[in-house]
Write a structure and sequence with these properties.
mainly alpha; 18 helices; about 0% strand
Length: about 425
């Protein structure tokens, strides 16, 4: 799953490279703004993947193949519905994005073109989330990797073809993404169909009120958690901007290193979702405890390895990402903080996976709200007193608090879930 997640950043790099060669600065800026709007919307809707993984894994663990299929079909209906709603609301989404980012007229025009075309990919993209969640919940991570390669590989190839070879520019890159999502969706539906055993659930089973209510509840909580997480990153950026463009650029560069490392931690988190979900579905408490201990060990180990890599190779990475002497110097001054973030945040990634797999989404949501409230207070308080060092310290506390609050309430959640189960 780490390999699967690592294919995603290649899309953004390809789109930037294509427009960087066939367009001007305004077109490139429009692409960046448009992609930022989609990143926000699609990140919030990632609950369609996470919620499906946890519910599918529990159905697999409980030995309920028809419920496994029903979970996917419910997620598919929800995905297509949200995707179509977003297409209809595209003018509102675009207007809100432009108000929040406030780009120049030429950049806004290019961004509007990109968003208008790419928005037609929403139903396919969200259905791909449901497909990925279903495949992961069944423990078929190799198949998930292949589907991500098909999706992202097709997307990259068509974006280059339409955007650069045909010379369509921004519309071509966006249309390539639409076609890539559609191709990935087709491949994914074939893959899910190949995993099916027996007849499809009846409509009454698919649209069962209790099942839909559970899916909506889990997805709602994960969506709120995602909003809070994004709000934390936006606050970090907003406070960084108060120190001027050099510090803002340096913090953004260092945050990019953390974001890249997070794809490795996401692989561990996804494993914990699937394993924890199966253990809960099967009501096997020893398997659940083993999942927690192993994934915590792997998560901290991966986080430590990433921290060492960033610390030792940080100077070289900074020089590769920017040529500005002032930004380089500022980034080096806070490199130690950036190097610590994967290790400090490792437990949060693992605990998120455990709680999603066990569908303890309400508890995860509540701890995220608490962590964000602490970050807001510390962010303004420490920043005003200690400057950018205070901001980084507040951010490290935010990451650590997310993981340790979830770990603290895990025993009580475990007792309620496995009450009456064999030890």
């Amino acid at each position: 799953m780490t390999l699967a997640f690592l294919t995603t950043p290649l899309l953004g790099m390809t789109d930037i490279a294509v427009i960087g060669r066939v367009g001007d600065a305004e077109m490139l800026g429009g692409l960046v703004v448009g992609a930022l709007i989609f990143d926000f919307v699609f990140a919030v809707c990632n609950f369609l993947r996470a919620g499906t993984t946890g519910l599918t894994a529990q159905a697999v663990g409980a030995g309920r193949p028809r419920e496994t299929e029903a979970v996917f079909l419910r997620a598919a209906v929800l995905s297509v519905g949200i995707g179509v709603a977003l297409i209809l609301c595209e003018p509102l989404v675009m207007a809100a994005g432009l108000v929040a980012i406030a780009p120049g007229p030429a950049v806004a025009e290019a961004a509007s073109t990109y968003v208008f075309v790419r928005m037609f990919s929403a139903p396919f993209a969200f259905l791909n989330y449901a497909i990925l969640g279903s495949v992961l919940g069944r423990g078929r991570s190799g198949l998930a990797l292949m589907l991500q390669i098909v999706l992202n590989g097709t997307n990259i190839a068509l974006s280059i073809l339409f955007g650069m070879v045909f010379g369509w520019g921004i519309p071509g890159v966006a249309f390539g993404t639409v076609c890539g999502e559609a191709a990935g969706c087709a491949a994914g539906l074939v893959a899910v169909a190949s995993l099916r055993s027996g007849r499809l659930p009846r409509p009454g089973e698919i649209f069962e009120r209790a099942g839909f209510r559970q899916m909506l509840g889990v997805n709602r909580d994960i969506m709120i958690r995602s909003f809070c997480l994004l709000a934390g990153f936006l606050l970090f950026t907003r406070l960084s901007a108060t120190f001027g463009p050099v510090t803002l650029a340096a913090n953004g560069l260092l945050m990019h290193l953390f974001s890249t490392g997070s794809y490795f931690l996401d692989g561990v988190a996804t494993a914990s979702e699937q394993l924890a979900g199966i253990a809960v579905g099967a009501r096997r408490r020893p398997a659940f405890d083993r999942t927690v201990s192993l994934t915590c060990l792997w998560g901290v180990g991966v986080g430590l390895g990433l921290a060492v890599v960033v610390f030792l190779l940080g100077d070289m990475l900074i020089d590769f990402l920017t040529t500005d002497p002032a930004v380089r110097a500022s980034a080096r001054a806070f490199l130690a903080f950036a190097a610590a973030t994967p290790l400090v945040g490792a437990l949060a990634f693992v605990m998120d996976g455990i709680f999603i797999g066990a569908t303890w989404s309400r508890a995860m949501r509540d701890m995220m709200v608490v962590s964000l409230a602490v970050f807001v207070a510390l962010g303004y308080g420490l920043t005003s007193r200690f400057g950018n060092q205070g901001l980084w310290l507040a951010f490290e506390i935010f990451l650590g608090l997310r993981g340790f609050t979830l770990l603290a309430i895990l025993p009580s959640q475990r007792r309620r879930t496995f009450a009456g189960a064999a030890a």
